What does this fold into?
Amino acid sequence: MMKSMVKREKLFRAGIAPELAGRRVLVVGAAKTGVATANFLLGRGAVVTVTDRRDAGSLDAYLAGLHPRVELELGGHRQETFLSRDLIVPSPGVPMDDPLLATARGVGVPILSEIELAYRFLPVPLVAVTGTNGKSTTVTALGKVFEEAGISVCVGGNLGNPLIGEVDGLKTAQMVVAEISSFQLEWIESFRPRVAAILNVSEDHLDRYRSFEEYLRVKERIFENQEPEDHLVLNGDDHLVREAGTRASSSKVWFSRRTIPLQGVYLFRGWIYSRLGRGTGRKIMPVSEMLITGEHNWENALAVTAMALLGGASPADVRRALGRFEGLPHRTQFVREKDGVRFYDDSKGTNVGAAARTLSGFQSPVVLIAGGRDKGGSYAPLFPLVREHARCLVLTGEASGRMARELEGAAPIVRAGDMAVAVREAAAAARPGDTVLLSPACSSFDQYQDYVQRGRHFQDEVRKL
It folds into this structure.
């Protein structure tokens, strides 16, 4: 079955892969995705230029991997370059409303995202996962299940390896599993996963989108080209995801912690059940066997189970792989216990929804460290959870003032100038049996390169205690 799927996919892609030889292509952004895109294009005979507003000194780590035959325009963008190309491929960090992109599009220059370009050359079926939270954990765990099933799989996308950088190495792969962000979906045209999933939707990236509605509509683009023979896996407990499903033409499969869907995967009395095809529910595994904890990870496991079974894995494969999966760094990662207090790093909780899901998963009192760069959404959804679960709230970073105002009264608030002070204040406020949790609800870019650097700093300071 898998071989026939791969063969059909190759024939399908042959009809949409563009001819790149001799075409003048502009790649906007010279970081990881831009460099991978430029090298891919050059390898197919395109004449490639990479442009970035930053100078070479700021991009050294990325440019070291760029082929020397790629032309560079750094330190600013030139309008004439945008207008004189046959194709433009913007990196995910470049907003869709960039004036130069708008000008180029206005005169008819085609614009495609990196994942759209990569998709057109994929020789194997694609499973694509989006959502506000849980994408990386879900995609990684799904890859482990397929490996357990003996299905050769490539895992990439927004997870860390640009999808386009994986295309040329797919000679033995039978399937691609990709994490897809809203940014990557902005410039798609024919992108069509055989299995797509929307895990959840909550406010995020409102510093980039004009409204939450716009952000939601971009997320929905993951299924806009799907046909009835394709599958769409949806969170039945998320009302926004349920509503989005009404606009899909694909075959819908639901996952739920609260209800039993007609077609889908669900949680009942501590067990994951599958109800796909005809017949009653089939036991897959008890969630008590999972190493990763929390209701949000149960949801991730339900989504993984649905996609894995649709992709050809067996229930036994799911149980073995999920039973061994340890999770990912900086996602509710246990750091240490000191004086009866347990410290957890959830630096990847870069939005309010993520922090809320993590906080609600703890039964012990929590001293919550939050803050960073504001992303434009409301912190109000955190208020009842902080009031219920938090002994104290330690705030740091650019957003700390706004967070303090919106969360005043939910718990005692301590302001800390940096992570070192925040960890010391949190440890002082905690009591034996408590949890100290870093789950910022904000991006890291006010003080750090990324959430990884922030998480490592937190862990370093915790180990100094």
In short: Residues 116-324 form a domain with the UDP-N-acetylmuramoyl-L-alanine:D-glutamate ligase fold (CATH 3.40.1190.10). The chain has three domains: 20-111, 116-324, 333-464.
